[in-house]
Write a structure and sequence with these properties.
CATH topology: Chorismate lyase
Distance between the termini: 35 Å
Oligomer: single chain
Order of helices and strands: EHEHEEHEHEEE
CATH class: Alpha Beta
């Protein structure tokens, strides 16, 4: 069982703004990531508008597979403007988390906005996650901001619902 869940699923509190590694380590489990791809690309119109940069400015694209105790649980596609972490190409993201990298560059994560949907995976993604291509995945889109109000990251996260549960706490105003 993981984190008092009878189903054996990993529980994650959506109220906490934490990275994958720290969340999993707190549960006494072993996180690991495998970088599928990492490269610079032009921002284009969508990411230029999102990050308040020019369309021909560059953003890092990172696709990584996240594991818990050697089981694949999620696939992430992360976009980060180059001007924020210009030396990201030389950082081994198998050793350092993205959030640790932000700290190295003096970036203080402040908040994130996230949406959730259910989608069917692309066949290659289903294969990476070791799921049937007809099994819906939880699909999170997240925009993260630093304490200066800058958008520092846009993330698409495909999560196995058979491995993870998420909770949110609401307060009455």
């Amino acid at each position: 069982m993981r984190d008092n869940d009878m189903s054996g699923k990993i529980q994650r509190n959506m109220d906490d703004l934490k990275g994958f590694n720290s969340t999993i380590l707190e549960k006494g489990l072993k996180p690991s990531v495998k970088i599928i791809s990492k490269y610079l690309r032009e921002a284009g119109n969508f990411y230029a508008e999102l990050f308040k940069i020019k369309p021909d400015d560059r953003v890092f694209f990172i696709k990584r597979l996240c594991f818990v105790d050697d089981d694949p649980v999620s696939l992430e596609e992360i976009y980060i403007p180059e001007y924020l972490v210009p030396k990201l190409s030389g950082i081994d993201l198998n050793l350092f988390s993205v959030y640790e990298t932000y700290k190295m560059f003096g970036i203080n994560l402040y908040m994130a906005e996230e949406t959730l949907d259910l989608i069917l995976p692309e066949p290659k993604d289903a294969e990476l996650l070791k799921v049937d291509k007809e099994m819906p995945l939880m699909y999170f889109q997240s925009t993260s901001y630093d304490d200066k109000g800058r958008v520092i990251e846009y993330d698409k996260n495909y999560v196995r619902g058979d491995k993870c549960d998420f909770s949110v706490c609401f307060f009455k105003e």
